[in-house]
Design a protein that fits this description.
Elements: H1 3-27, H2 34-59, E1 65-67, E2 73-78, E3 99-103, E4 132-134, E5 139-145, H3 157-174, H4 176-180, E6 183-189, E7 192-197, E8 211-212, E9 217-220, E10 232-237, E11 247-248, E12 250-252, E13 263-266
Parallel strand pairs: 1-12
Antiparallel strand pairs: 2-3, 2-13, 3-10, 4-9, 5-6, 5-8, 6-7, 7-10, 10-11
Helix pairs in contact: 1-2
Length: 274
């Protein structure tokens, strides 16, 4: 086991210990000294900072790898590394240069964020749900999972607060696979791996060990894991294990790296409205 893997396991153990001690203190008053409750939380925060800084140093100055786009049609970029690195506010799980994209085949076709109502929407309301995801290069499938459910959207004030304050923390303690939900990892060769997160349940067209060609259908976009709405989370990284991976910059052939809010069109549309 690598030092980075061990650090991430201990990181999650510390958060679980903090929650256990906090619950014990609430159930049985003064059973646990208050200062002791904070020790594992402080340790987890310190580990997260140290691991994140180490990954940032090692990921710096990596050349961008050119690959094809993972989708076709009209999309909008969110949380883009073109505007901020790390793009998702963390180097963890290989996300330093990750990008989120949402489908909007026609302007105004994607439901807007609402502060109060509706609290949640069904996935079918979002045009990204069910969109085909394509191999960005010739590759070998390293990991493929699609057994987790697609939950309702979190694109309202109350739902987003629940995601940020409760759901995301619990998923982080449970491990990387709970964060990314159904996901796929491809080995592109030369120490480069591509990850697709939040796949639709039951949509995988490939399995671990398969060889795929650039442009081949892999799965469909879903809303599993730590996701506010159906969207594609894409990243390149230097290891197939999300716990130890460091991010690698990418550029999509013919597109580049779209900035936050930038609308772009990828490839030729294929069946089912794409």
């Amino acid at each position: 086991m690598s030092a980075r893997k061990a650090a991430m396991i201990f990181y999650r153990f510390c958060w679980l210990a903090f929650v256990a001690l906090l619950v014990a203190d609430l159930v049985a008053d003064r059973l646990v000294p208050y200062g002791l409750v904070l020790v594992p939380a402080a340790a987890a925060i310190l580990i997260g900072l140290l691991v994140g800084r180490r990954r940032a140093d090692l990921a710096a100055d990596r050349p961008a790898v050119e690959v094809g786009p993972p989708v076709t049609g009209r999309w909008t970029a969110l949380n883009s590394p073109a505007d901020k690195v790390p793009s998702h506010g963390t180097h963890g799980y290989g996300q330093t240069y990750a990008i989120d994209i949402v489908a909007e085949p026609e302007e105004g076709s994607r439901p807007p964020f609402r502060w109060l109502w509706p609290v949640a929407r069904p996935n079918r309301d979002f045009p990204a749900f069910g969109a085909p995801l394509l191999a960005v290069a010739d590759a070998t499938v390293v990991h493929a999972s699609d057994g987790r459910r697609d939950h309702l959207s979190r694109n309202s004030g109350p739902a987003l607060a629940y995601l940020m304050l409760v759901e995301a923390s619990l998923r982080d303690m449970a491990g990387a696979r709970w964060i990314v939900g159904n996901h796929l990892v491809l080995d592109l060769g030369d120490g480069t791996y591509a990850a697709y997160a939040h796949l639709r349940r039951g949509s995988l067209q490939v399995r671990a060990g398969d060889t795929v060609r650039a442009g081949q259908l892999l799965a469909h976009c879903g809303n599993s894991g730590n996701s506010t709405e159906p969207h594609v989370h894409f990243q390149l990284m230097d290891h197939p294990d999300l716990d130890v991976a460091r991010g690698i910059p990418f550029t999509w052939r013919g597109i580049g790296v779209p900035a936050n809010g930038e609308v772009f069109a990828a490839g030729e549309t294929v069946g089912d409205g794409w």
